[in-house]
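User: Can you predict the 3D structure for this chain?
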Amino acid sequence: MPLSPKAFHLLEVLAERRPNAVSQDDLRKELWPDTVMGGTTIARLVSELRAAIGDDRHEPIIRTVHRFGYAFAELATEEHVGPAAVIASFAIQWGSQLVPLCAGENLIGRSP
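Assistant: Here is the predicted structure, written as structure tokens:
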């Protein structure tokens, strides 16, 4: 499904700051640095993004933080291509998703 540049930028901001919630004010400043925009503009972008990524109400990828903003709630993994990539023989199940473990140390959780 096509995604507008602003909706893609929203996805980038939420993914970079995961798992922390981003306030609507911060999103406005990030997406429209020199313009005053209304709250429904962000809500429309979130709706577009949710439709594009197939967000499910029961297990949301983009979480609404009422009266504050939004957060990227999905477990995210980074994939490396090349010799460093290792096919895992072990994985962790997160809901219906399997997260492969690479050889060596794997960090699990949100805090350092």
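Strands lie at 22-23, 62-65, 69-72, 90-94, 97-101. The chain has three helices and five strands.
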